[in-house]
Amino acid sequence: MLISTRGRYALRFLVDLAEHQGDTYIPMRDISHRQEISPKYAERLMSVLSKNHFVKAQHGKGGGYRLSRAPADYKVGEVLRVMEEELAPVACLTCKPEGCRRAPDCRTLPMWRKLDGMISDFFDGITLADLMYGNAASMFETK
């Protein structure tokens, strides 16, 4: 599993929106500038986020983007699953209908399922609010 720029940048955009949220919409150029991401690429990401109801969009003068819910109500895992389409560590765990013909006899499949569950639990245990307030950093410091 490799988290792409789509997933990483989407999280950066959502954290940026969370940090600058208010009663107004935030223009795309402001977010792009702060995050040092091209407006064209940013618009493609925001389109996906908007279609999946992570953000609200308003076009025209005074338009831009804002979160559709509170930062604490966003789980990192849900964002990554939408942006990456798949977080499974191995192909045999993906939701493809053909599946793996060896699954019934596979001795390693339980290990991959356990890892997949750990990945989901990890990312679903972190919210935008955690990232926004720096809580995630202290959650994962090694001692």
| CATH level 1 class label | Mainly Alpha
Low-pLDDT runs of 5+ residues are: none
What structural class should be given to the helix and strand makeup?
Answer: mainly alpha
How large a portion of the residues is in β-strands, by DSSP E? 5-15%
Distance between the termini: 26 Å
What is the number of E strands?
A: 2
Q: How are the strands of the biggest sheet laid out side by side?
A: 1-2
CATH topology value: Arc Repressor Mutant, subunit A
Reading the helices and strands in chain order gives: HHHEEHHHH
Helical content stands at: 40-55%
Give the full name of the CATH homologous superfamily: Winged helix-like DNA-binding domain superfamily/Winged helix DNA-binding domain
Number of domains: 1
Number of helices: 7
Mean pLDDT: 89
Radius of gyration based on Cα positions: 18 Å
| Basic shape | elongated
Kindly describe this structure.
- With 143 residues, the protein is mainly alpha-helical.
- It has one domain (1-143): Arc Repressor Mutant, subunit A (Orthogonal Bundle), CATH 1.10.10.10.
- The protein has seven helices and two strands; from the N terminus they run αααββαααα.
- The protein has helices at residues 5-19, 28-35, 39-51, 76-84, 109-124, 128-132, 135-139, and strands spanning 55-58, 64-67.
- The protein has a two-stranded antiparallel sheet with strand order 1-2.
- The longest helix is centred in the last third of the chain and has 16 residues, at 109-124.
- It is elongated and about 60 Å long.
- The two termini are 26 Å apart.
